[in-house]
Amino acid sequence: MEKQSVLIGEIVLENEPRIALYAQTPIPLSNTGVVVLKDKLAFLLDSRFHASDPSRPYMSIAEIQEKWNCPPAKIAHLVRCDRLHPLVMNDEAYFDPAEVARVLSFR
After folding, report:
1. I want to staple 8 with a disulfide (CB 3.0 to 4.6 A). Which of 21, 33, 36, 46 is the partner?
2. What is Dmax (Cα atoms) for the chain?
3. Which structural domain, as residue segments, surrounds residue 64?
């Protein structure tokens, strides 16, 4: 069974850096399911939660390689170490550009 990681949004804790929140589902969700999940979590987490922008484009592995001059093995390592969280769509991995920038700017 293939799991799906969904970028839910960010949470802000006082003066701390923003924290990206991901949900892992046992089955892929429809776009409507993702929106409902985000709404329910926003309600549960109160006003400090900011849902992710569904219109923000995700980056493919090839785009990460080109922009950051990063080999695929490095990207796979960051996924295994739970530092990058892919969204799998049609058997292809895509990544949130903000998360990629945060992780790869410190390498």
Report:
1. 21
2. 40
3. 56-107
Verify that 71 and 36 share a domain, yes or no.
Answer: no
pTM of the predicted protein model: 0.50
Q: Kindly list the distances between the CA atom of residue 49 and the CA atoms of 20, 33, 40, 44, 92, in Å, as whole numbers in the listed order.
A: 10, 18, 11, 9, 28
Which pLDDT band holds residue 77 (cuts at 50, 70, 90)?
A: very high
96 and 64 inside one domain: yes
Q: Could you tell me if 61 and 45 lie in one domain?
A: no
Q: Report DSSP letters for 24-93, one per residue.
A: EESSPPPHHHHHHHHHHHHHHHGGGEEE--TTSPPEEHHHHHHHHT--HHHHHHHHHTTSS--EEETTEE
